[in-house]
Write a structure and sequence with these properties.
Layout lengths: L4 E5 L16 E2 L2 E2 H9 L5 E5 L14 E2 L9 H15 L5 E6 L9 H12 L3 E6 L2 E10 L3 H9 L5 H5 L4 E6 L15 H15 L2
Parallel strand pairs: 1-4, 1-6, 4-5, 7-9
Antiparallel strand pairs: 2-3, 6-8, 7-8
Helix pairs in contact: 2-4
This protein binds guanosine-5'-triphosphate.
Catalytic activity: Mo-molybdopterin + GTP + H(+) = Mo-molybdopterin guanine dinucleotide + diphosphate
Protein name: Molybdenum cofactor guanylyltransferase
Subunit structure: Monomer.
Length: 207
């Protein structure tokens, strides 16, 4: 299995949390980013962080930071494009990008493997992670060769990740939600208490 290039999407404004960087929020005593890097790093050939503004605030994580081309906050697709273009210029043009938002602390260890398998089985171009019957469109495996199409789609005003994915053959790979939903994400202040509780469980189970 050829490992994908990993991209953590941390380019948003976290408005529902009052601003700041969701990836720097500590859950169970550790930043979400540290948790993600631990889980995603071994699954990827290389790992990058997509974020806007002063990159030095992420220096302690030791990842190269790739900004959106324009700091206009066009949404997650702008981050996926930055990641695809970076990957295309540093890795073979046939490589894949695995995108994961910076607000999902508990992604599964078999994320890359199962997305690769689901995509091959379905003969699809894009594989998306799903749980509880819901697709998590920002958690997806993309061929970086779609960068040109994505650039054009953004220029045409496409902002929905699901809208861009729907243009291609795609498949959703389902994960169980027990003992916890691996795609639980932190969006609102009230999600923080749940994240703390989940971290206690996830830390015991994650080996
Ligand atoms: N590169 C980039 N990523 C973004 C942008 N907007 C959102 N994201 C990322 O996309 C993922 C899903 O984002 P949302 O939860 O919808 O947005 P958010 O900014 O994190 O939070 P809200 O402002 O509260 O919606 C997160 O990983 C964000 O960091 C953007 O304009 N550029």
């Amino acid at each position: 299995m050829t490992k994908p290039v990993g991209l953590i999407l941390a380019g948003g404004l976290a408005r529902r949390l009052g601003g700041g960087d969701k990836g720097l929020i500590e859950i169970g005593g550790r930043p979400i980013l540290a948790r993600l890097i631990e889980r995603l790093g071994p699954q990827c050939a290389a790992l990058f962080l997509n974020a806007n503004g002063d990159a030095s605030r992420f220096a302690r994580f030791g990842l190269s930071v790739i900004a959106d081309e324009r700091e206009e906050f066009a949404g997650p697709l702008a981050g996926v494009l930055a990641g695809m273009e970076h990957a295309a210029s540093h890795f073979p043009s046939t490589c894949d990008l695995l995108s994961v938002p910076a607000d999902t602390p508990f992604i599964p260890n078999d994320l890359a493997a199962r997305l690769i398998e689901a995509r091959a089985d379905a003969g699809a171009r894009i594989a998306v992670a799903a749980s509880a019957g819901r697709a998590h469109h920002a958690v997806a495996l993309w061929p970086v060769s779609l960068a040109g199409d994505l650039r054009q789609a953004l220029a045409d005003g496409e902002r929905r990740v699901s809208g861009f994915i729907a243009r291609y053959e795609n498949v959703a790979a389902q994960w169980p939600t027990t003992p916890y939903d691996p795609f639980f994400n932190v969006n609102r202040p009230e999600d923080l208490a749940e994240a703390e509780a989940l971290a206690r469980e996830a830390d015991v189970l994650f080996q």
